[in-house]
Each structure stands twice: as C-alpha cells, then as structure tokens.
Amino acid sequence: ASESSLNEEDGLQVFLWWLLGIAALTFALLMSARMGIFQETLYKRFGKHSKEALFYNHALPLPGFLLLAPNIYQHAVLFSQSEPFQVPVLGLTLPIMWFYLFMNVLTQYVCIRGVFILTTECTSLTVTLVVTLRKFVSLIFSILYFHNPFTAWHWLGTALVFLGTLMYTEVWNSLGPFLARCRKRPKEE
Fold it and tell me: Where in the cell is it found (predicted)?
C-alpha cells in the first residue's frame, strides 16, 4: 500500500489477504486451545506422560513428509552448497544452512518440550496463554531485530495481550485488598 501506483482494487485485495491471515492465526490459536483441552482430557484418563505425548505428536506425522521427499532432497542439496561455517566450540566445519537448521531444530525441541511439560502441570488455558505470550515476545523481537515499524495495530495488539494476561491472572482481584490496606494506613507526620 506504500506505492502510489496501487489502485483501490489492489488495496482491497491486500486488505482481504490481511483478513485471511488474521483468520488463519485465529483458527490456529483456537485449534491449539482445543488440542490443549484434548491433551488435558487424555492426561486425566491415562496419566501425565509428556515425553510420550511429545513423541507421538511428532512421530505419527513423519510418513506424511514422504509426499514432500523430492522437495526435501532438493533443499538438502541447496543446503549442502551453502557457504562453509566453522562451529565455534566444536571446530567442526559444515555448510551454514545445515548449522542454521540444526540450531532451529534444537531450539524448537527445547521450546516444544517445555510446552509439553507445561501441559502436564497447568490447565490448557494457562498453556495457551503462555504460548500466546511467547509468540508475542517473538513478534516484538522480530520487529526490533528487523527494524520494522511499530504501528498503531501493534500497540492495540500489545494492549489486548497485556489486558488478557492481567484478566486471566486476576491481578485486579488481588489489587483491591492491597489498595484498601494502603488507604487505611495512618499517615506519618
């Protein structure tokens, strides 16, 4: 929309794609919450086994990747052709794209393992809130790292995230007695 050559139809098309993106993110959030409720039900019925749940959630979809085998192979070849990189601590040299992939897999494993452990300890609503806050922090980091503008929509989203978090943690209820005690204290002269 920043280009002056865009006409009204193009602006409408961009807006519709934006709405589609928002709808997809909303749907993903709702499905994630539904999966959390399903996991909570399974944990109540069969016991809390976060490692087992993590394994089955990631092992069962693996055969589906066979449909993408040619594309995966093509990208493996491209990764192997990337510039060499020496891993600092190990002194090992490998193509940088393989290093990036390995680091991504490692950090994703740590993150998802934490989420699965959290599902055994907290309610699904708490897990959904924590995951949403993590996504929010990632978004803020991305905006700062890539020097993207922080628009009014970002401020609105920030306000809604914090408002929702405060409502869920019931900070308002705990502030009431605290403020009442502060008002009753005698003033020191």
Answer: Endomembrane system
